[in-house]
Amino acid sequence: MLKILLKLWWIQKRRTFDWKRLGLFIYMMLCVIVGLGAGYWQAGGELDQLTSRGGIGLIIVPFVVILSPLELWMKLLLKTDAAGMDDYLRSKPIPKATWNHFLLVTNLVDYLNWFIPVMVLIIGKTLMPIGYTLLAFCLSLTQNFADGLMITGVRKAQGWEYKLPLWLILLFYYCISALFMIFFMHWLGAIGSTIAWFFITLGFGISIYVYLCYVKHYNEQRSQTSKVGRIGGSSLFSMEYISLLRSKRLLRGELLLLGVMSLQAYIRSMGMDPDNDLNGVEGIYVFMTIMFSSLILGQWVFSIEGNFFHGLMTKPISVFDMLWRKFWFFILLNLTATLLLVPGIFLGYWSPLMVLSAFIFCAGVNLLYMPTSLFSKRIDLFSSAFFNYQGASMGVNVYAFVIIIPIFIYICLIVFIDNTLVVDAILSAIGLIMLAFSRPFIQWVAHRFMAKKYKRMEDFMK
């Protein structure tokens, strides 16, 4: 029966292969490679001294434990394996023990559980002798298998009261690791501490698996009621990126602007002299890259929906819900641009606080795009991106001056305040305040839209 389950699992994996998750996995892998490479390049001399003194083996346990939260976060995002039997499998004579063995085997062959150990093997080969490298690889592999079972148990458990023991076990494991590294690691030595922590990690994984075997999973506990959030099988949020992917005009402009601004930010930071007094000006390029990712769509709120707005008004969907989802989609675009700038943090081009404050500020600035829904016009989704003014109006051109205000604020802060920490704090505070008032402001815009609903509908018909 286990062979049949594995065969069905393999067929399902081949038929439901997700390229988007593979792309996200490759991006995360590149970020880890760039970060580790930059760290090795900047601390090369100190690592050579540590290797010459023979104390390089003492970093095995801390290095593996520090990577654990990273790969847990990665598996929470990318791991999609089944945790409980569905109704079809429940109708078959599959014992509970066989299903638990199936979960164990799928965790053993999951590529997410092998990525971090392979990286540890490559890095260890460049820093440590072959014996220490194999010890680090085995310890990292055991750690990843245990964390993979942890994520599977969280997915299988239903209700916070059944998931809480898993998180408590993980917290206890991290507390034990801190005490072990402080009091016992130097006493046991490099090899002894690695072997001892291997057995502790093995016990952690076994305890997770035992709990996984006994926790129950019921499909009938799932609520059968659904909220109004889908139209014809597509979610309201998916309408945002589907319309972007299908429209030549917006997609080309979005990709071109995002690529050019990101490249400009990297080129500007590479040519910046570290001793230059205008070193903080590089934050302007970071800010413009993050902001312009949503600006190109923010100036045409409801212009795409103008092609089928009459159909939307026949659905039980409020204008506020559409604007609210657009607001969060703009934040998602800002986050995409921010992820493109993450490798620059590891390369030392800009600080993490600068990128984070710029993202928070740009997320709040997205609120200023919402009033353009009051005077936007219908846009042709399949028209060319050049010399095409559909969807624009005089009201949008006048309102464009409002968009200049956050740019002016950012430039003034960069120019007149020398302390970059103060600039980051002010930008984050402004962004958080705007995010706090986003819901009532969007409700006010939706109320203004509905006050002249029929006039707006006639504008979309022109």
From TrEMBL:
Entry-linked Pfam families: DUF5687 (PF18940)
Annotated TM spans: 21-43, 55-78, 99-124, 130-154, 166-189, 195-214, 255-272, 284-306, 327-347, 353-375, 396-417, 423-446
Keyword Plastid: no
InterPro entries per record: DUF5687
Coiled-coil boundaries: none
Keywords: Membrane, Transmembrane, Transmembrane helix
UniProt keyword Plastid present: no
Protein name as catalogued: Putative membrane protein
Native organism taxonomy: Bacteria, Pseudomonadati, Bacteroidota, Bacteroidia, Bacteroidales
